[in-house]
Amino acid sequence: MKISRRGFLAGSASVTATLGGAGLGFSAVPSRSPASNRTLVYLFLRGGMDGLNLVMPRTGVHRTEYLNKRPNIAVPISNMHDLNGVFGLHGNCDGLKALYDSGKLAFIHAVGMPEGQASRSHFDSQEMFELGTPGNLATTTGWLARHMNTSPHIASDAVIPSLATTSSSPTSLLGDFRAMSLDDASSFHPNSGRYGDEHVNALGRIYNGTSTLDYAVQNALNMIDLLQQIDITVPSSYPNTGLADDLGLVAGMIKENVGLQVATVDYGGWDTHNGQGNDGGGYFATHVGDLSAAIKAFMDDLESSGLIDNVVLIVQSDFGRRVRENGNEGTDHGTAQPIMVIGGQVLGGQIYGSFPGLRDSDLYLNTDLRMTTDFRQVYCDVVGNFLLNPNLSTVFPGYTGPKSIGLFDTNTIFANGFD
Amino acid sequence: MARTKTSFPSPDDSLATQAHATSEEIPAENNSQEEVNSSRRKFVLSSLAGSAAIAINVRRGEAAESNTAKKQLPKPLLGEIRDYAATQAAVTAPPPFAVMVLNRMGFGPHGNDVADFNALGATDDERLAAYVDQQLNWQSIDDSALALRLSDPSFAYLWENFDQAWQTHKVDGDDRYGPVDTMERAVFTRAVYSKRQLMEFLADFWHNHFNIYGRDPYARETWVSWDRDVIRPPQPGNPRPAGLEHGHFLGNFRHMLELTAKHPAMLYYLDNYVNGRGEPNENYAREIIELHTLGAINYAGPNPGPGDINTISMPEFPGLSINDKYSDDDVYEAMRFLTGWNVEDGGNPYGENEPDTGHWYFWEGWHDGLQKQLLGVQWPAFEGISEVYDMLDLLAFHPGTAKHISLKLCQRFISDNPPQSLVDQVATVFYNNRHEPDQLEQVYRFLLNSPEFKDVSTWGSKLKRPFEVVVSAMRACGADFTVRPDDNESYYFMNYFGRTGQRPFRWRGPDGYPDHRSFWEGGASLVHTWRVLDWLIDENTNNSDPDLMPITDITVSGLGTHTPNTLANFWLKKVLKWGPSASGDWYGTELHRALRDFMSERPDDDPSPWPADYPIDDITDNSWPYYWNERLRGLVKLVLSVPEFMQR
Q1: Please, are residues B311 and B398 in contact by the beta-carbon 8 Å criterion?
Q2: Is the preceding omega at residue B611 within 30 degrees of 0, hence cis?
Q3: What mean pLDDT do residues B595-618 have?
Q4: What is the tens place of the pLDDT at every residue in B244-274?
Q5: For chain A, which terminus, N or C, has the lower number of CB atoms within 10 Å?
């Protein structure tokens, strides 16, 4: 059940008092389970990020291969953070480095879909990641929707259990009819004039039925109400970028305690076929720097609010790009990629997985970083050990591989959760 | 990459693949996105000031009239995947036949359309048959009002032929996005003002069926050609190439399919121009089968078992057994047929010095010449180019293609889940006329005269997509707004419209904008669609330029006595073109009460409403304390948002 529009209005005399800084009623009801006030944020880097210029070898034979295969675009040691002696992080990622050093950020390298099921098509690959079913584009629900529809920990009084910061729900939320989408709060109202409230009331009267369209309108009206009643001001500590605004919106919802269990965020601009930037500079460097700064601001915001242990952020892209640079000082579509998992409870400061190497004989089809970790192993770890949903076989149908990669200390989580 | 069938119940797996629109733009595009997003900060600050107003919005006397039951969303059982089939919102009653037809085979009534339709015969059947004939005989319809709007100099790119466009926008690199940016505005102007409504409705359907991301290279420069030389029927004096004379959406599907296959926009978008022997690329091969011809409904999976595939016979391939469904092996084989296709783009990476014309050509040296097999039919080695035409014949003439396209047409014209009996009948017409020059015209004529199309009991089962909502609203309100290039208002309009998620030619995946209501029921898409209407109705009302939507003028000239009662009734009739009472009025309905109450609410300092028959002395006045004109415009925004208008 959710707070309906009419519920808001009927109780509106006390709305202001209820809101008095404490959030929307959700906090008044004791959480039924430790995972019901946890939030997973799924940040998708649309376009295929060049992961080998984010996390790359800094010593040894693979460093040599990296330099040989990327004569123009290789990131030099002088523009690189040292992660663990063997691997480096792009030098523009100060924020990510700080999160790594504080033990909140884990990299899992060479993640992908099983060989033979991966695709170098943006659309197919995004779809299969978001559906959670590699090799199968006919699945009719997204993996986040299946989590939402099967988890025993979705709070019954959640106002916004799932949020997409895009105009229509992404594939990962396909089949979750409680999902709300909000891409641009600045014009999120059907009437810009002085009769906006009356307009919303009239729509609530007109769409008062039980069809899915009625529900969709009611959800939208609730979102409009909510935006008027809560303070989701993005703090000035966030950089002035679209991604930072989206993450700030999500953080605002988390802080307002609306029962947010999953949120999706998109950040595009990664399809760097041409002139991505030489010697660790240029377009890619700026873009990855923006990514790093926005994530750091988001996690800092949550930390200062005392909520960082309740949030996990997964950052991934369509695919990794080719190991060798192309003739245009860019990179073409490849296969495996590094994924980031960030949060207060993440056992970070480590690089998980197995790096397959960059020698010719190491590569998949002689061109791509070879996949060594199935993405579902990472997702299962988050769904099972952070969101505590035991229905992994439904969330990832057909997946029989390992269900954890060790990102969480499950003993700690359960102990803290039941305190 | 193999695709398997879903392993759990799938509510609508007939056309299940749907891509999510992505934002993987080049850097320039990201900047504009960030500008849009950064305004959020301003909003949330200003919204704080408005929050106090919430508490006084409860109106007395309303509870008795409205249903206050709390809605509860379906709660799935643990571990179970529910079929969340989308359902339509209740409507007051079905509309008259003419109103339904004008909403089902066009973008809703405009001007005197309803009266004109009703004058076409003595019975509904006669009128519909005459209207369908009239619409299909498109050249006999005077469309000079639209032509006048398109004669604006800003539409100049519409009149470039293919070679001019390629030279200007591709070779010279001048305004590369100009043609697609012109087209995204032209489709609004055409859909609103063309009297050839069925043509515009069909153009929208076929652009989505053969969807291409219009901002891709080779598409953006040639987009006018793609629309004019492939999708639409040829204009007099501009015939199709010899042998493909009937390739367009009123003509022959086989001809049309080959035109799409050879256009540089498609060759680039689905990578067939780089599909060569030794460098295979199956992107186009998969989509021509899965989306353009047989469709996913005829997919037997990657590893079909006994009985999954049966054989049929086709007169075009005498004596041969042909598979009724396809598997991944057929995709791989189709890829081999399609090797060696290329575009003359002056940049052949394989060493030949080629001209830069944008024309398709076949490079035999890059073609996989060995023997092949498709849908059970075998081809000997070294057939050259002819075998690919055989392949297009096999796909276009296959009965599975007839069923797939007929299903999609019935879904577009009637409902998301049309009766299978009708789909089968339409498919039979498609199949039996597969060699006819007017095959597709015959298909529409049959479908549009079918009892299922005429059945008012299925009224409302389609949710209008944002494009349909906005276009039909502009038609209903008599908008005077030529959406066009090089125009500030059009620029803002496109930006607002883009937030609905259906900006023309911007769907990234090859499957086109989804046509089922569950996709468009995302709350943000609905709110942004209504926000476009809000902008259209308010634009220029506070300056001396003409209103884009003449709401005030229509009210003053069309209605004598202005009260909350009469205004709500007048605009419901005006927009919906009918009323449920014997006199064609809306008095006494829930809808009328809700809208009347919106008009009769007093300013916040006085909670008791005006009487429903309160005489409003000057509806053009927008001054304190009543702001009647703004309230009137709000009323019309609401009328355009009701289920009776949002669904068709």
Answers
A1: no
A2: no
A3: 85
A4: 999 999 999 999 999 999 999 999 988 888 8
A5: C
CB within 8 A of B604, min separation 6: which ones?
B53, B56
For B363, residues 6+ apart whose C-beta sits below 8 A from its C-beta are B276, B340, B341, B342
Question: Cβ separation of A1 and B38 shorter than 8 Å?
Answer: no
The SS3 assignment for B436 reads coil
Domain ranges of chain A: 5-11+30-417
pTM: 0.78
Assigned token pair, B417? 């889940």
Return d(Cα B588, Cα A49) in angstroms, integer.
59
Percent pLDDT > 90 in chain B is: 70
**CB-based contact B90:A213 (threshold 8 Å):** no
Q: Which amino acid is at A255?
A: K
DSSP per residue, B437-493: TTHHHHHHHHHHTSHHHH-GGGTT-SBPPHHHHHHHHHHHTT------SS-HHHHHH
Which tokens hold the place of A245? Answer: 């605004």
SS3 assignment, position A162: strand
The answer to whether A255 and A307 have CB atoms below 8 angstroms apart is yes
ipTM value: 0.85
Distance from CA of A243 to the nearest CA of B (A): 8
Residue of A nearest to B85 (CA): A212
Q: Tell me which chain A residues have a C-beta less than 8 angstroms from the C-beta of B508.
A: 122-123
Asked whether A243 and A18 are in contact (CB, 8 A), the reply is: no
Residues with Cβ within 8 Å of residue B124, at least 6 apart in sequence: B97, B454
Q: What are all long-range contacts of B620-628, with beta carbons under 8 Å and residues at least 24 apart?
A: B620/B552, B620/B556, B622/B541, B627/A194, B627/A195
> From CA B629, how far away is CA A62, in angstroms rounded?
71
**Closest to B106 (Cα-Cα) out of B359, B326, B413:** B413
B308 alpha-carbon distance from chain centroid:
34
Least confident of A144-153, A174-183, B381-390: A174-183
Q: How far, in Å, are A249, B100, B103, B635 from residue B576 at the CA level?
A: 39, 10, 10, 14
What is the percentage of chain B residues whose pLDDT exceeds 70?
A: 85
Alpha-carbon gap, residue A314 to A341, rounded angstroms = 5
Domain boundaries, chain B: 270-397, 551-646
Question: Phi, psi (5° rounding) for residue B27?
Answer: -50, -40
Q: Give the amino acid at A419.
A: D
Please name the member of B27, B39, B634 whose beta carbon is closest to the beta carbon of A193: B634
Q: Does A64 touch chain B (CB under 8 A)?
A: no
CA–CA separation, A114 vs A335, rounded Å?
A: 10
Q: Which of A246, A232, A200 is CA-nearest to residue A219?
A: A200
Assess contact for B94 and B455: CB atoms under 8 A: no
SS3 per-residue string spanning B270-335: CCHHHCECCECCCHHHHHHHHHHCCCHHHECCCCCCCCCCCEECCCCCCCCCEECCECHHHHHHHH
Judge: A138–B38 Cβ closer than 8 Å, yes or no: no
Minimal CA separation from A235 to chain B, in Å: 9
Q: Which two tokens stand for residue B188?
A: 């609004």
> What is the 8-class DSSP label of residue B341?
E
Helix-helix angle B328-337:B386-397, to 10 degrees: 140
The Cα B251–Cα B256 span in angstroms is: 8
Task: Give the integer Cα–Cα distance in Å for A250 and A264.
Answer: 9
Say which CATH topology domain A5-11+30-417 has: Alkaline Phosphatase, subunit A (3.40.720)
Q: Which of A9, A167, A233 shows the shortest C-beta gap to B525?
A: A167
Element (H, E) at B191: helix B178-193
The predicted structure's pLDDT at residue B28 = 34
Say what the pLDDT of residue B4 is: 32
